[in-house]
Design brief:
CATH topology of the domain at 8-155 and 174-201 and 257-285: Rossmann fold
Order of helices and strands: HHHEHEHEEHEHHEHHEEEH
Number of strands: 9
Oligomer: single chain
Strand content: 15-25%
Helix content: 25-40%
Strand order of the largest sheet: 3-2-1-4-5-7-6
């Protein structure tokens, strides 16, 4: 999904290292999570199986388990270290409510048409192939199941991007597609009633280095494939910090985040996929046989 080519191995290693410090730095992530949970409450009928995709340390998994106590919650992440934190409740006690699953979002080890709700907070920006992820969502979701997600948009960390561009042409901050591009991919996968909207949040820091430490603390520092290898030189870092001065307001340094919110419902079976070669519809042979065996309406 990211327009920046990402080093997948570096992403995994980054989140592994950040697991122990994630919760103390994830202020923005928790705020967006709470807003996304409100949308679930507004849209969702009581689900049987919930997937928290890209669960991190499991804050939303526990919230969903509390909100829907009759449901099974799967906390899925590709970082074993992050998942090791999920087993602890809000007060540090063991809580076995969420099932923990280590997997890649591009190849979900879940049965076809088994999930009633997919919840994903600020995880999809780490996808290297959004169409494949949406096809996986479509495969595992029951017809009419709810998808709610957030991800970063193209104006995220605009100030940091501009400051680094004054230093060199290497990627230092990931690029992300806008909500229209994401909406188009959802329509191509035949998701029903997609609704997309954008919110812009700005955090303020006393020092730019505090922002950089926070990004590292949540595992979101630079993992672009074309990133400079090795430590950043003092001269280049000083150049970036000097360029960031143009954004300082009232003694604080802003960091802008563009948050894309999306909701949609899974298509019914047989709803066609839109491809460059035309629409492609697939059906379960067992379902077709079941329908053929049903008596026609009005028959005796």
């Amino acid at each position: 999904m990211s327009l920046t080519q990402l080093d997948v191995d570096a992403i995994r290693q980054s989140f592994e290292r950040a697991a122990a410090t994630y919760d103390q730095h994830a202020v923005l992530q928790r705020e967006v999570e709470s807003r996304l949970l409100e949308r679930v409450e507004f849209h969702c009928c009581p689900p049987g199986l919930i997937l928290d995709l890209g669960c991190g340390t499991g804050s939303a998994s526990h919230a969903l388990a509390a909100q829907f106590p009759a449901a099974d919650v799967i906390a899925l992440d590709w970082s074993p270290a992050m998942l090791s934190q999920v087993g602890r409740g809000a007060r540090g006690t063991l809580d076995s409510a969420p099932w923990r699953l280590c997997a890649d979002m591009h190849a979900l080890p879940l049965a076809n048409r088994s999930v009633d709700l997919i919840f994903s907070n600020l995880a999809l920006q780490w996808s290297y192939n959004l169409p494949d992820v949406l096809l996986e969502f479509r495969r595992i979701m029951k017809p009419g199941a709810l998808l709610v997600f957030t991800c970063f948009g193209p104006d995220t960390l605009y100030e940091l991007k501009q400051a680094w561009r004054a230093v060199d042409d290497l990627p230092h901050v990931n690029d992300h597609p806008d909500m229209h591009a994401i909406g188009d991919e959802m329509l191509a996968a035949s998701f029903q009633e997609p609704v997309m909207d954008v919110e812009r949040l700005t955090l303020q820091y006393q020092k730019v280095m505090a922002l950089l430490r926070e990004l590292k603390g949540i595992g979101a520092h630079n993992v672009a494939s074309r990133r400079a290898q090795g430590l950043t030189s003092r001269a280049r870092m000083q150049g970036m910090l000097k360029a960031y001065e143009q954004f300082r307001q009232n003694g604080c340094y802003p960091a802008s985040y563009e948050i894309i919110y999306g909701t949609a419902f899974a298509p019914r079976q047989g709803q066609p996929l839109r491809t460059p070669a035309g629409d492609i519809a697939t059906f379960s042979i067992d379902e077709m046989r079941s329908r053929a065996a049903r008596p026609a309406k009005g028959s005796i």
